[in-house]
Amino acid sequence: MSKLGQAKRIIFLKTADGQLFEVDEPVAMEFEIVKSFFDENEDAADDTVVPLPNVSAEPLAGIIEFCKAHVEFRANGAAGKDEVKKFNAEYIKEKSNEQLKELILAANYLNIKEMLDFLTETIANRLKNKSVEYVRAFFGIENDFTPQEEEAVRKEYEWAFEGVDED
Amino acid sequence: MNTATEEFNASINIPVSMPATASYGRLQQQILGICSYSMMLIHSIGTTLATDKKKGMEERRNNGFHLPQDILYDILMRLPTKSLVRFKSVCEHWCHMISDSNFCQVHLQQCMSKVMIFSWKKGADRSNGCYSSYRLDETGLIATKLGSLPFLCRPLFFSVACCDSLVLVDQDKSSPITCLSVYDAITCHRRQLLPCLQSLDRYLVLVYDASTQKYKAVVLSTGQSPNLVHCYICSLDSENEESWRQSTPPLRQDVTLSKFSSVVVKGILYWTAERPHERPRLRNINEVFLIPRPCNINEVFVQPLNIATEEFMESVMVPRLPQHRYSIPNYHMKLLEIKESLCFAYQASPTELDIWILKESIWIKFHKLCFDSIINRPTDPTSLFAGHLFLPWLVVEGCNSKVGYMLIQHNANSLYWYNLDTNEMKRIAAIDESGGYVSQLSVIEN
Lengths: 167, 446
Known about the structure:
- The complex is a heterodimer.
- By secondary structure, chain A is mostly helical.
- In chain A, 54% of the residues lie in helices and 9% in strands.
- Chain B has two domains: 3-78, no CATH class; 110-443, Kelch-type beta propeller (Neuraminidase, 6 Propeller), CATH 2.120.10.80.
- Chain B has helices at residues 3-11, 20-45, 50-63, 69-77, 81-87, 92-99, 101-112, 287-290, 329-332; strands spanning 115-122, 129-136, 143-148, 159-163, 166-170, 180-184, 190-192, 200-209, 214-223, 230-236, 245-247, 256-265, 268-275, 299-306, 311-312, 316-317, 333-338, 341-349, 352-359, 362-370, 390-397, 404-410, 414-419, 425-428, 436-443.
- In chain B, strand 19 and strand 20 form a beta hairpin.
- Chain B is globular, with a radius of gyration of 27 Å.
């Protein structure tokens, strides 16, 4: 088991679609699931490949990019500064709703608290001014209200349906 | 691994190839998540058809995007009340989740904790003092200090406006040239704005323009000739040098603007203004007794400004105020926003606050607040409010209650949450025990 002060350790991660990722130890240790794997298997060989059968390569690459940047921010004492906000905003700008959903599922499986916080916040921000129909489409939810029930709910909160973004 | 665990693995799709030791913590969490989810289902569905519905719900969840319940809960928890009440009509499951009393309680407290308080406390030499910002904790009842402005000032010469975590300050109102700066209460970043005008009697507002996603500083000035009120607006760009634009309000010079009373409702900034009442010219002395006249009551109206277009709109009259002889309406009126409608609050007596809501151009009496529980001793209704001033700052709405909580300032620095559904009051732990007063409040958006 490599400890601090020794040569930089690389962690090998294998995704559901069979891709092998080589990740610096501090970045991989952001993933709670990987961290607990090594905590509980202290004698694991250095070249152990950790299988991640619930994560495919695309979201994992995105997650590694995010965690890598955040590990660096913390090392530079920049945590909580404008720099981080700027990075986060840039990072998420180009991501589609589909990519965002894949990222949050993967981050949830890998159990990365900081990233989960950021992603839930992002989804909440994307949804907050949207219509009910948009939200249903986003989550793949079927409307199970009868038209009368839905009408009644809408009527009670009429004010909340004004000034909603176009889908 | 025993059989029960394996079955769980299969149903929640955790691969068995994963080392058991590594997945255990996560697995346990997921099991807990599922348990609490099932409990919520049982709790919310009631007795009839519980099993059928549960089956239907499971199927539907499997058709859509498999978002774990704890993540969905976290996303919903971060949404504003307006979105939550709208999303009650997404599906039955969401409606139950959002209506759940525990969820509502936590969400409401979270909204209450987003309040930032900006307050002045006198310094050692008694005239100069220091402005500090405070944020409420997760219970909404204890204020913790965020930071202080890096200079001393006298409140008489100081003007301030808040929006989110930003504070716009005019350091010296007595100086003819504005010395405005914007200060971020969270990051403590401070930045000076270009001077905008040369006049006295300035009133500041800081607003967020959703159409351009920029904050705008608004300065109204009444002390300038000719007989006009001037309005200067500038956007706070992050990089570029800001520039002041002028907009002409349909206000005459003799109006008095209330520095406390501005509110933004759906992109419109409303401001209360007063002008001395014009009495009808008397034709003969008998009319003095025949025509009922208000005593010392000024004409009060609300002046709207469209934040996006920066154009003033037609003024709105306020509801008829009670005509008591010694009132100084300026200090006893406040504009508010409730359910995205403009509201007007007026302290009608030492212990009462009347609230009207504007619906389709008609003012409707909405609520009457009573503060007898705060003022335990008898009051003399003929005296000048018996020294009690109640200033309602804002309303925090809950997603399951009729209204929610109103934050009310009593005199200089006592703050209370007033439950508009039950009329109960809770005191917020004192900000500055002595010699201070609360100057501004705002709700931090993020």
